[in-house]
Amino acid sequence: MRLPPLPLLTLAFAAGIAWSGTRLTALLPLAGVAVGAAVAAVWFLRAAPRWALPALCILALATGAAWEAYDRAQHPDVLAPWIEQRVEVEGRVLDEPRRTATGRWAHRIETERLRRPEGEWPLRARLLLNADYRLAPGEQVRAAGFLRRIVGTANFGTFDAGRYYARQHCYAALHCQAPFVARIGPARLRLDRQLALGLRDRMMAVHQRSLPPEHAALLNSLVFGSRAVPVDATVERDFRRAGVIHVLVASGAQVMLLVGLVVFLRRWLPFPAWVGVCFALASAWGYGLMAGGGPSIVRAGVMAVALAVAHALGREPHPLSLLALAALALLCLDPGLLFDLGFQLSVAAVWGLLVLAPWLSKVLPARPRWLWLLVSASLAAQIATAPLVAYHFCQVAPAGVVANLLAVPLAGLLLVGGLATSLLGLAWPYGAYLADSANLVLLVLLRWGVRGCAQLPGGHWWVVPPSAVGVTLGYLLLALLPRLRRDHLTLLAQSRALPGVVAGTLVLLLGWRLIPRPAVLRVTFLDVGQGDSILVQAPSGRALLVDGGGAASAGFDFGERVLLPALLKRGARRLACVLLTHPQADHCGGLPAVCRELPVGALIDPALPATCPEAHALHDWVVRRRIPHLRARAGTSWLLDSSTRLTLLHPPEPRLAGTGDDDNNNAVVLRVDFGRTAFLLTGDIEAEAEEHLRQSGLLAPVTVLKVAHHGSRSSTGAGFLGQVRPQVAVISVGRANPYGHPTPVVLRRLAAQGIAVYRTDEVGAVEVVSDGATITLRTARGQSGLPRPGAGP
Based on the domain organization, do 647 and 689 belong to the same domain? Predict the structure, then answer.
């Protein structure tokens, strides 16, 4: 079947949006005008119709870039004058909140007025409100707090919260505690949305009364989406590892199922076509309002309504045209959706079902037909979304092919059963108890099956993610796959050239691995908020991780969500060693996930008593994975590779006792030597440990210093700095932390000795590259440093 023009035009429009903001964007509108004139001439004069589609694609490219730039200009950052100031705002909650890493609730609100001691201003802007409790969409609130830029952890290639919210025209966050957030009025919503949300809350309450809490949350999440009904973190992890997290997200599947039910009823009930169209529109609209109206829901709604209208008019539209129409409509409404993961996965999954699934059903065995049709659909969706999942999450879930065969049918039954039971419960509560008994059986089967698939050996892989160019090339190759027929594959399998092709490919891959890499040492000070984590990568590729900061909190695994992606984005698929400087949450919070998911050669720590749950979890995984566990001792020295020497300078034997903080003062201090450059990683040592090091004779000048204890007043004394004489100091610290780190006195000491300071709360992760003679720096937020000569011994 010939490809219709609309998908190509939509791709060009999306490419223009992605291109917007580059230096070439200024030329695109001018090029678009010229191309548009040429298209008009071609179209009306029919002089060269074969050039019409390429010209239209160029015009769509220019239009996409111009539209994104216009949309950005229409939503300026009007809150900029009040950043880092205490303000009071009044406004309205826009949508369902999200749970943050600290267990608080992040709400998007639209402000109506802003107050300061010097005055009051009417102001319409979007901002992020972090509160201790959940607010309902539409509620009128008054809140007071500090207005700050939205800044999450910034590591190379990982999720950027500031950019994510900026694409939603939300540039600042108001940080406040519960007493400074007040409801000042009832929810103000459109009547249709108010009715839909009220009905949703009453329907969810039916299951909450008749099912155990965990199963009620799971069923409500299957029906209305996990954003409206958050599920337990363990449940979410199992669904994610099994590759079926999509069933917990309100998506197009629910909308299409509801519209399919309308189509099915139309075949049996004699009502006019226009009634079916109205029913399809009403069901898609109503469910979208109840579930939050995410990109996948709107996409499915547009496709469903367009399909219903086409059938009413007696037309049979091309499936890809329906998908392209829905994507184009969404991008016209909000160009920033192009960068939304939900939009990307939704479009990719539907494309796989429309394009790859029919091809797979032809090349896979023919019998039994029903089974291979199911396998084809499941495999197509997994293949189509795999590049995006690998890019964003550094994960691939082969178990998803099997898990989807089980989860999708059960989720469909539970969606229908959950909706029917909740509607029944509104009229007959006792009937809902009986119906939910059947739903409970299906929920237990689903939970058991997903947990089993999540635990399959090899069913879930952490991978080094591809680049954006790699993802694009991957989708180009996938688009070519349907051109291969079964007879082509048969001829290829029987070809005498096949062994040569396979051997040549293996030689090329092996040759690529054997290409000499630059003999440089990379030390990356990761941005983990108020904590420490340093990745040391030797020229040979062997890697050492020093600490893995970030305390786990409600519903949030710091190691899995932040630390593992940051490591994999740096190419660290395995670790020769993990060195824990001391067992506190801001240094070991992410290490349980690291030891659970990655190959680790050994764990070295000072063998101090564990004082936090994260340290206990780490040691549990060390025992379960049989990772060698070594005690750190001053004077121990070994080679990470032939050119990189690691030396432990602290703690001594016996350990220091009677200090201000024995845990901090017995933290491990590591020196890394590479050529004439040296790095000193000091953990959280304080003045007593620094004095002991000065008297031990082990200190020598270094090139880069990791400032101890996040820049606290009790560390980094002038005498200590005078002995190590670093050129660069890196402070790993959380933005707006409650401890006041780094303290002004430490910053003054560093400035007095002319030391260049890089703070992770300001510049994000800091990468220092050494060739053995000089170092070069760059940061995750774009700052770079000129080469500096080494200052080793």
Answer: yes
- C-alpha to C-alpha distances, 538 to 429, 443, 521, 542, 726, nearest whole angstrom: 65, 49, 5, 6, 21
The one-letter amino acid at 135: L
**Secondary structure (DSSP) of 208-272:** HHHS-HHHHHHHHHHHH-TTTSPPPHHHHHHHHHTT-GGGGS--HHHHHHHHHHHHHHHHHS---
The b/e string for 245-260 (b: 16+ C-beta within 10 A; e otherwise) is bbbbbbbbbbbbbbbe
pLDDT of residue 554: 42
Please tell me the total number of residues recorded for the chain in this structure: 793
Cα–Cα distance, 749 to 726 (Å, whole number): 12
Indicate if 679 and 705 belong to the same structural domain. Answer: yes
Of 119, 170, 120, the residue nearest 147 (C-alpha): 170
> Are 64 and 86 contained in the same domain?
no
- For the chain (793 residues), the mean pLDDT of every run of 10, in chain order, is 83 88 58 60 56 77 85 88 91 82 78 90 89 83 89 83 85 78 78 83 91 90 73 82 79 65 65 69 77 72 74 78 89 89 85 88 72 79 88 88 86 87 90 91 94 88 88 89 65 60 66 68 94 95 92 67 92 95 93 94 94 92 96 94 95 90 94 96 94 91 96 92 95 87 94 93 93 93 61 48
CA dist., res. 107 & res. 173, Å (int): 9
Last residue of a domain, one of 513, 532, 548: 513
Question: Beta-strand (E) ranges in 337-473?
Answer: 395-396, 461-462
Distance CA 474, CA 486 (A): 21
- The strands making up 766-770's β-sheet, listed across from edge to edge, are 629-631, 603-605, 577-579, 543-546, 534-537, 521-525, 766-770, 774-779, 784-789
Instruction: Using alpha carbons, select from 290, 296, 301 the residue that is nearest to residue 228.
Output: 290
Do 111 and 47 reside in the same domain of the chain?
A: no
Which pLDDT does position 184 carry in this prediction? 84
Residue 518 to residue 131: CA distance in whole angstroms: 48
Domain that holds residue 142: 80-188
State whether 476 and 569 are in the same domain.
no
Alpha carbons 274 and 270: distance in angstroms, whole number: 12
SS3 for 62-120 is HHHHHHHHHHHHCCCCCCHHHCCEEEEEEEEECCCCEECCCCCEEEEEEEEEEEECCEE
Counted domains in the chain = 5
Alpha-carbon distances of 754 from 60, 722, 792, rounded to whole Å: 53, 11, 17
Cβ contact 196:289 at 8 Å: yes
**8 A C-beta contact, residue 120 and residue 158:** no
Residues 592, 550 contacting (CB under 8 angstroms):
no
Query: What is the structure's pLDDT at 793?
Result: 45
- For 554, phi and psi rounded to 5 degrees? -55, 120
Final residue of a structural domain among 153, 188, 223: 188
Of 352, 321, 332, 330, the C-alpha closest to 6 is 321
Q: What is the CA radius of gyration of the chain?
A: 29
Bridge-based pairing state of the strands 766-770 and 784-789: unpaired
Q: Angle CA(312)–CA(251)–CA(5) in degrees, nearest 5?
A: 55
Distance of CA 254 to the CA centre of its chain: 24
CA nearest to 745, candidates 703, 791, 773, 713: 713
